[in-house]
Design goal:
8-stranded mixed β-sheet; alpha+beta; binds iron/sulfur cluster; globular; binds flavin-adenine dinucleotide; 399 residues
């Protein structure tokens, strides 16, 4: 059995809610500093010391191959595919592949607990991280809480509970901090199931987004920025509302994304064992990236519950990305009718599959690179990983 010397970190004191975090305004509220693992914050925080390149090698036993376009963009991987559940989980964000993998792992005794995030009773979008020990608790965590979420705030409970085998579900910034303290958790086996993540917001920012974008903010149960270049809102009564990206009130929404997310280059969750998103797949399908043998083992558990097809790629994103770059600076908004028309045209001729994923990565990395350059120039060199520098280097950026 693994024994660890935890005497040092146990003496550290978690920060009180609401107090300034070590990464200051760049903090993504990942939860690490809500625990005594704050002891390791300097090496663990994605916004104090960016370590993706190094941790990729320790996690996956090899670095990302920057000469291979798919690895450059999507990180170390063994395989990618499009997939969907044969029987989707009602109320999941997409078809519920994430919840299904977690449930299988628990049911088959691979893990004793699953770190995931439910919402509070009072507020459907207020994240409440838990360690789930039953399938029901995992199911109650389905669907995105589209706000910064302190998933790692439950880390102290792991050591206290004596658990030895654990699954953590989380987004990139949470997983970087987790990987950095992995060896200190006293676990025999850690599994990591990641989702991609971009453009996240604080709870207050989310309210502003809903109020400026949806026709009925109080009934929205979930939303997603989809491959057809529209935001799709699902409402309580089951109805769906779509708003074209190009019609978003970018002048109002300009400052809405959290500074952490404007400085984030881990869109594809590089350090997870397996990643489940949607952006590299055809509309209504999910996109799976298996990074290592552990991820392969996790996917095997649900193979009989899903149908799959190979990933595809169509179109050419480059000129669309280049043309969109000045808009980040000027916060352009089109009238709704023009935006709708543009959405239709782009949907017909625009990038699809992996090319859509590259479109989204290129545009966000270019925007974030400019943000860090303007707001944290001294951090730029060390904070931007090598793969992101290469991706941004393909475009002409304004000074
Ligand atoms: P479900 O079975 O519904 O399970 C969702 C899981 O997500 C739950 O286990 C829950 O614990 C976890 N979760 C919910 N909210 C959070 C949170 N705030 N932080 C950490 N974990 C959380 N995919 C893309 O391909 N492109 C994107 O641009 C993209 N952006 C995203 C932005 C955010 C903020 C989040 C949380 C996810 C994003 N995803 C993105 C992932 C995608 O939306 C789905 O979460 C993923 O495909 C899984 O769908 P599912 O039906 O299998 O999940
Ligand atoms: Fe701490 Fe996480 Fe915030 Fe970094 S991002 S300061 S590790 S809570
Ligand atoms: Fe964390 Fe990046 Fe997602 Fe923001 S965009 S919540 S920093 S993974």
């Amino acid at each position: 059995m693994t024994t660890i010397d935890s005497s040092k970190h146990k003496k550290a004191k978690a920060l009180k809610p609401g107090s300034v975090r070590p990464a200051k305004e760049l903090c993504s509220e990942c939860g690490l500093c809500d625990t005594y693992y704050i002891h390791y914050v300097k090496e663990a925080c994605a916004f104090i010391t960016q370590r993706i390149d190094e941790l990729e090698t320790t996690t996956h036993n090899r670095p990302r191959n920057l000469e291979d376009e798919n690895e450059l963009y999507f990180g170390v991987h063994q395989e990618m595919m499009s997939a969907r559940k044969l029987e989707p989980i009602e109320g999941a964000q997409w078809t519920g592949i994430v919840s299904s993998i977690a449930i299988e792992m628990l049911n088959r005794g691979l893990v004793e607990g699953v770190v995931c995030v439910q919402n509070t009773k009072e507020d459907r979008f207020q994240p409440m991280p838990i360690i789930a020990r039953t399938p029901e608790e995992i199911l109650a965590a389905k669907v995105n809480k589209p706000t910064l979420s302190p998933n790692l705030s439950v880390l102290e409970q792991i050591e206290q509970s004596g658990m030895k085998r654990l699954l953590v579900i989380g987004v990139g910034c949470q997983i970087q901090a987790l990987r950095a303290v992995e060896k200190k958790l006293g676990l025999e086996k850690l599994y990591v199931l990641g989702t991609p993540c971009v453009d996240n917001v604080t709870r207050a920012g989310l309210q502003k987004f809903l109020e400026t974008t949806s026709r009925s903010p109080e009934t929205v149960v979930s939303y997603e920025f989809m491959q057809d270049f529209r935001v799709h809102f699902k409402h309580e009564d089951g109805s769906e509302e779509t708003v074209p990206f190009f019609g978003l009130k970018t002048n109002v929404l300009k400052d809405i994304f959290a500074p952490s997310c404007m400085s984030c280059f881990d869109y594809v969750n590089s350090l997870a064992d397996i990643v489940v998103g949607y952006m590299g797949a055809p509309f209504k399908w999910q996109w799976i990236v298996v990074r290592n043998d552990t991820g392969k083992e996790m996917l095997e558990l649900v193979k009989d519950q899903i149908e799959t097809q190979p990933v595809m790629s169509k179109g050419d994103r480059k000129s669309a990305v280049q043309q969109s770059i000045p808009a980040y600076d000027q916060a352009v908004t089109l009238p709704m009718w023009a935006a709708k028309l543009m959405g239709v045209v782009i949907d017909k001729i625009g990038p699809k599959g992996l090319e859509y994923a590259r479109f989204s990565i290129d545009s966000h990395f270019a925007r974030n690179y400019l943000y860090v350059k303007r707001n944290h120039p001294k951090k730029l060199e060390a904070h931007v990983p090598e793969f992101a520098k290469r991706i941004v280097g393909q475009y002409k950026l304004p000074e």
